[in-house]
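seq:
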Amino acid sequence: MRNAWITACLAVAALGPSCGPRAGDEPAPDQVRAEAKYISRASESEDWCDYCNTRVYAGHRCGRTTPCRMCKREQGAGHIHEVRRVCEPCGWTQVDAHVCDNSRNCDQCRTDSRGPIGERPCERCYRSLKASEIMGVTTYCGRCNTEASTNHICHKTTFCRTCMREAGAGHIHDATHLCTSCEREAAIDHNHGGTVYCKECHRDAGPAHVHGRTVWCYRCGEEKEWPHGYHTD
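struct:
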């Protein structure tokens, strides 16, 4: 009896490796994760990501972007929408900008059948105003992995939420703007290749600039002692 039991155990042990999964056949967790990412790119439907389990747009990056149903494109963290509301009796237009990480659940930008529900009172007559226009202000930059706006220069500019535009190093709110030709911040009287912004005088200045004593003359093309006479020609 004992010999029969031992014989049965040996038979099961001999069949075990051939019936069950072998060591090394199961992929590692990292391998499964990588295959899921690959399948999401190569699935039959180009607008479906198997890894994120959602419909996506061109340029989708798993774990970094989500689809914005309102803008019809991919968005990163800190995506900004601009909402306009018009009060016809007052002739008053209100513009609000807000961070919208998910337009499907946003109280102002939702894209379901109920439409935008984020009503706001008019600042003059306090009538309730619905959104008349909603537009995306920023787009996702894959190189910088951040939201950016028009005139964005990779690794040199970032979006300024106060001024609602791209800004370079040394940006000052409401005082400087980005010069795309020089790729740096400049004042309103900027001359390409000839002037740079002076933080002491709060204006653009030439090479021979002296704080508080000289100003840039765009007619002369150089720094002049202040006060500089008006040109009559």
